[in-house]
Design brief:
mainly beta, OB fold (Dihydrolipoamide Acetyltransferase, E2P), 12 strands, globular
Length: about 180
């Protein structure tokens, strides 16, 4: 879990080139590699028992106690409309800091992933825009597609995937039985 890998294999030739590289935490989810900007990541913990909360959207597995704070934990696979992530010996919870509905405020949220892979430095020149079709998840969830050693890594837009406003609407829909909001 503690590996830092340079994508593209090229050394920066000038200081400005180094600034264009961003670091991403890569992880596996349902056999596909995804990544999140490392600046959003607070910590990574092993999966442990969660407390289920009634009337939550299906993508929220429950909450954990993280040093006295209640942190909701989302199943990313379920959020992407796929079956729930099975818990295995390499299953982790990645704690991410996300924007809230209140301007300027941030909150921690956990996401369940199959396994954490590495931290990659991906140059901006190796990142393509999100495809407008053919993706297995909503296009607005994708920040871009990184090319790393001949393979693609999906760069997630954390503020969209973990939108507290949208998840709140899903919770209200689940409580009221309004099914059309659940498929958003």
């Amino acid at each position: 879990m503690n590996a830092l890998v340079k994508a593209g294999g090229r050394q920066p030739v000038a200081v400005s080139a180094a600034v264009e590289e961003k670091q991403y935490l890569t992880f596996m989810l349902g056999g596909e590699m995804f990544s999140i900007d490392i600046l959003c990541i607070k910590e990574i913990i092993w999966y442990s028992s969660l407390t289920e909360v009634p009337m939550m959207p299906a993508c929220i597995r429950g909450v954990i106690n993280l040093r006295g704070a209640v942190v909701p934990v989302m199943d990313l696979s379920s959020r992407f409309g796929k079956p729930s992530t099975p818990v295995g010996k390499s299953t982790c919870i990645v704690i991410i800091e996300v924007a809230t509905q209140v301007e300027g405020e941030r909150q921690n949220m956990g996401v369940v992933v199959d396994s954490v892979q590495a931290v990659l430095e991906i140059p901006a020149s190796e990142i393509e825009p999100a495809p407008s079709f053919g993706a297995k998840i909503r296009p607005d969830f994708i920040e871009g597609i990184g090319k790393v050693n001949g393979k693609f890594v999906i760069l997630l837009n954390v503020d969209r995937v973990l939108s507290s406003e949208e998840i709140g609407q899903m919770g209200q829909a689940a409580a009221s039985g309004d099914m059309h909001l659940l498929s958003a």
